[in-house]
Design brief:
Largest sheet: 4 strands, antiparallel
Helix content: under 10%
Strand order of the largest sheet: 4-3-6-7
Mean pLDDT: 96
Number of domains: 1
CATH superfamily: Immunoglobulins
Low-confidence stretches: none
Structural class: mainly beta
Number of strands: 7
Distance between the termini: 25 Å
Radius of gyration: 13 Å
CATH class: Mainly Beta
CATH architecture: Sandwich
Order of helices and strands: EEEEEEE
Number of helices: 0
Shape: elongated
Length: 105
């Protein structure tokens, strides 16, 4: 999804929260390279069956360690999930990391 020099978070994961969202978690690694606490998380969920994508490019700050992406329109379908980070000023971005397929059942 993205490619860049900004460090991504350590140990990212994604899981269906049982409602209308996917919870993404990561370990805050601010201070590693150019990673800063105020970097914003980029969350992506792609539903192949519907050929639709839900995303945010201005999610929670890196220091939060968690964020939820609303995906109610994908309920009942599997989605592919990804996480990345973008600097607060929007200049730097990290490589995206695949955080797995989530079944929204």
């Amino acid at each position: 999804m993205s490619r860049g020099e900004l460090p991504n978070a350590d140990n990212p994961s994604a899981a269906f929260n049982g409602g209308n969202g996917i919870v993404f978690n990561w370990i805050n690694n601010a201070g590693t390279g150019h990673a800063r606490a105020a970097d914003r998380v980029v969350l992506v969920a792609y539903c192949k069956e519907l050929n639709e994508c839900e995303y945010t490019t201005a999610g929670a700050p890196r220091e939060a360690g968690t964020a939820i992406l609303g995906v109610k329109e994908f309920k009942g379908y599997p989605v592919q999930t990804y996480i990345a980070f973008i600097s607060e000023n929007g200049v730097e971005i990290s490589n995206s990391i695949y955080t797995g397929e989530i079944s929204l059942v």
